[in-house]
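User: Predict the structure for this protein chain, please.
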Amino acid sequence: MSGGLLVAGTTSDAGKSVVTAGICRWLRRRGVSVAPFKAQNMSNNSVVAVGVDGRGGEIGRAQAMQAAACGLAPDVRFNPVLLKPSGDMTSQVVLLGDAVGVASGRDYRAWKPRLAQTVFDTLAALRRDHDVVICEGAGSPAEINLRRHDFVNMGLARQAGLPALVVGDIDRGGIFASFFGTVALLSPADQELICGFLVNKFRGHVDLLRPGLDTLAEVTGRPTLGVLPFAADLWLDGEDSLAYNGLLGRPGPPHGRQWLRVAVIRLPRISNATDAEALAAEPGVRVRMTAEPAEVADADLVVLPGSKATVEDLDWLRRTRLADAVLAHAAAGRPLLGICGGYQMLGERIDDPVESGRGQVPGLGLLPIRVVFDQLKTVRRANGVGFGDIPVSGYEIHHGQVADGDPTLTPLLRYTDGRPEGARHGSVMGTHWHGAFESDGFRRRFLAEAAAQAGRHGFAVAPDTVFGTAREATLDLLADLVEEHVDTGALWRLIESGPTGGLPTLPPGAPDHG
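Assistant: Here is the predicted structure, written as structure tokens:
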């Protein structure tokens, strides 16, 4: 068997990533060898995956989550093109895990032929290795201004002969018009590959939708294969910064007498915001993504997360007076944590000829370190210990390197070989490691110490929270939703047999650029 499916969407953030993960886990339950694939992702939430030559490489966080749904380790083939926005008009281009350059929106068109061939070859190789590959589109397939050079949505479906399922988020409103308009704007050849619709995030009884679903089928000639209900627990592993605003997750009641309030500063170019998810999974830990100085002032623990543009985001901290709130928080002896770019901001000086080209700029001066940016990006898995002997694992993705610092500075972590990593200086802490708080013992010890430094002596860390179990429960919930609310028989036929022939063409249709 060499089946496949394209999960497209009416918009960005329609639910393509979670639907893809749910279908992947459903297929795995059936004993199918399945892999995820997203030709091109635009996200600063990335993880380190296995590269084509065994070295570490970057892929989007959502594809790592989908790989887990398939029971697979992250692999750069699952997301061959990753665009990491570094400014309003530019993105770093990561190809099969390696950063290969920076492109503006206009320049990127010249990259597409090379990238498209790599994408097509990579998908073909995956389909040889697995029974089924579930592909996730990007944005909307009806972005007809981009269709001529598309290799992510209908361009991919045409090249690989994939049936496409269109997902729509009913929370946004206008879902029937979005479904109809998505099909109608496509060329006849692209329309032939659109085989059905899937409603996402519905709140209510499905009978209320039935008249609309019936009419949609009449005017498009395509069925709706399922109506997925809204599920509040699906908040882990967001694909981009749109998923991280306000309260993170649904915090369980505290294990002790008090809550621990955590403020994660929502930087404009925030990177790997997913680091905060493990903290938010703990009972009694209230994690809020914020850009408000008042919420920083009110927090027990403040986190400066990663950034794809460290110097520019440090400027933004100062312009918004958030830097003043961070400094006041540290001066009061309350805990402050910097991760990757946030860690670099805490130092005395940053020398950056790479990302910003600004050279030497002053940091916040809260850690006695100096950071120098290297042209060669560090991309690797990391293992070691924290707080003496607690096992920790994570991953590193950064240009900035700690060039020198106070030799008496206490490291926050140590690599397996004993080398120091990160820093602890009073209540101020930092590390380059992403994902460290997914190590349960380290997270518990860190939160216990942070609560003590913040004076939250009534806070108690739950002894039994296992972050990996929480993630697996999320993936199983996604598969449950697919099994219970999707016509899985019709879905299986699409995956196994490909596009349905003889589908009607909707007027007006767009020119065929395929």
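DSSP finds 15 helices and 27 strands in the chain.
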